[in-house]
């Protein structure tokens, strides 16, 4: 009989010595982004909520060094984990920017990918609009894209088109086996403000 080896994610979680389900969920989402979706330059951040004793964020390169302190409380009163990284391609292109790209025969591969933010959540968690607003308030502003007809440019004088997206985050929704799910992570884009509908044709 062959000895079965633990999976990579099981080994990662065991080596990280996680103390909370939220921390384990964040590590699992980071692993999923890196190995299944081919994201690069991934970083895990711990952010203490406004009701905690300290209101700071600590970027960490190793999930094993990320340890929440204090008792486990509601999402608004505990440590929130955020992941940032670079996806292999654009996750969302605004219809106005898409129209300019098509009219000028510029492909989305010619435009640099911007850093995205992921909020790992369990399917059973309940978050209020106020909690999501607090997360969005802490996200950095998105960069202004200055484009020429042959792709990205650095200087304003050479740009034929400028665009700045509103803040957005991906909700990494995870359904664990114990909660009736299969462990799949589904990502949903949550964007600040109104989203213009796309036009066909």
UniProtKB/TrEMBL annotation:
Residue intervals passing through the bilayer: none
> Would you name any one GO CC term?
tRNA-intron endonuclease complex
UniProt KW tRNA processing keyword: yes
Q: Where is the tRNA-splicing endonuclease subunit Sen15 domain?
A: 31-200
Q: Write out the ranges of the annotated region (Disordered).
A: 50-75
Its GO biological process annotations read: tRNA-type intron splice site recognition and cleavage
Q: Which GO terms describe its molecular function?
A: tRNA-intron lyase activity
Q: Does the keyword tRNA processing apply?
A: yes
Keywords of this protein's UniProt record, alphabetized? tRNA processing
> Could you tell me what this protein is called?
tRNA-splicing endonuclease subunit Sen15 domain-containing protein
Tell me the classification of the organism that encodes this protein: Eukaryota, Fungi, Dikarya, Ascomycota, Pezizomycotina
């Amino acid at each position: 009989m062959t000895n079965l080896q633990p999976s990579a994610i099981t080994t990662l979680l065991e080596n990280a010595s996680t103390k909370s389900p939220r921390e384990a969920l964040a590590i699992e989402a980071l692993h999923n982004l890196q190995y299944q979706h081919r994201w690069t330059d991934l970083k895990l951040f711990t952010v203490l909520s406004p009701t905690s004793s300290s209101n700071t964020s600590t970027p960490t390169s190793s999930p094993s060094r990320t340890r929440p302190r204090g008792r486990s409380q509601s999402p608004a009163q505990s440590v929130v984990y955020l992941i940032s990284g670079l996806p292999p391609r654009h996750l969302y292109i605004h219809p106005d920017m898409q129209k300019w790209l098509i009219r000028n025969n510029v492909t989305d591969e010619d435009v640099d990918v911007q850093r995205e933010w992921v909020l790992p959540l369990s399917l059973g968690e309940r978050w209020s609009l106020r909690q999501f607003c607090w997360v969005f308030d802490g996200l950095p502003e998105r960069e202004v894209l200055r484009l020429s007809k042959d792709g990205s440019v650095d200087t304003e004088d050479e740009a034929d088109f400028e665009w700045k997206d509103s803040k957005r985050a991906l909700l990494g929704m995870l359904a664990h086996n114990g909660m009736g799910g299969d462990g799949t992570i589904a990502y949903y884009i949550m964007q600040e403000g109104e989203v213009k509908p796309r036009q066909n044709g």
